[in-house]
Give the backbone structure.
Amino acid sequence: MKAEKLKGHLDLLLLSVLSRGPGHGYEVIARLKVRSDGAFQLPEGTVYPALHRLEGAGLLASSWDVVAGRRRRIYRLTAAGEAALAEQAAQWRDFSGSMTRVLGAPAAPAPAAAGGRA
Amino acid sequence: MSGGTTDTPSDLIEDYLDRLLVSLSGTPRQVRHTLAEVEAHLRDAVAEGIAAGLPEETAQVQALERIGPVHAVTGRPAALARPSAALLRRLTLTAALVGGAGFAAIGGAGLLGRLLQALKGNLFMTTPFPPGTYTQADCSRWLAGDPGTRSCVTAMLADHAFDYLLQAAACGLLGLAGLAGYLFLRRRWSDRATTTALPAGTAEGLGAVLAGAAAVACLGQALDLETVQRGVGVGEPLSLGIAATTAAVAFALALRRCLRAARTRAA
């Protein structure tokens, strides 16, 4: 999926990924790739301003820890983040369901002409 | 913070982090934290590439491609990024060096002009106004400034030459002050973030281009006056052109020295 399309949903994706447990930036990106089966690929650097923005909004909190020999900033969801995730996920499901209903099921291929000339 | 990678000035990761450092804005703590977490990210990505069998340099290139340009991390398009303190310091140093040297060169042109005035006279230095373009009051003012002569044109030439020399001297003093300020600030701002905020030789290159353009313009005007007006008024553009040429050569030599030093550091 193109990075531009992902940008509008990045906050929701990050909140969702971190709802499964705290993680540092690199780990968050890796989880995002795994959970989307590799479909969600964006310039990895764009995740950091989003994480910082969410922390500034009080939806995430961070602390520093040493993991695998490196000092890392570990992000975790706050109570406000959990509430925001629940609200945004519900909105997304409504929107997604509506879109699916409008678009309908993929059109079946046109049946071949029966019979033919005798 | 480093692990699995060399930490040399030519290290691609280090270069990226240098560019990120001078592009980040925020409090010193925010800048330090972002830099630390991005470095950990890049070292992880390089280690992952090496574990997958890539040579270290290829792993670095791949890690940088994945993280994207610096402005992806800062969250703003590069053109909209607020200049960092390091960049502002580097720009101030650049302006002080180029501006100081430029004004000092004008001061040097004044000294040369004084020599030319002594050797060739005021008519060589400056062009008189055409008849009818000045008033009797102007003449009286010029004659009052040069009581030794009764000719309005002669007094006018002396006045113009004096004005040129006075203004050049003022510029020269301003230039020396600018260069002194540059030397003072360069000692205070010798940190790596400031010195790498712009590519090596930026100030010297800019100075060489500006001084070179000024030299071409002034010498061209001097040549034109020499051929069209038979030497009248050649002194001002000639002295300025020679000073600008000297400044351009000095800047070009400094640029060459800077680029050689940068290549040596990178090797």
In short: The interface with chain A takes residues 1, 3, 30, 33-34, 36-38, 40-41, 43-45, 66-70, 72-75 of chain B (CB under 8 Å).
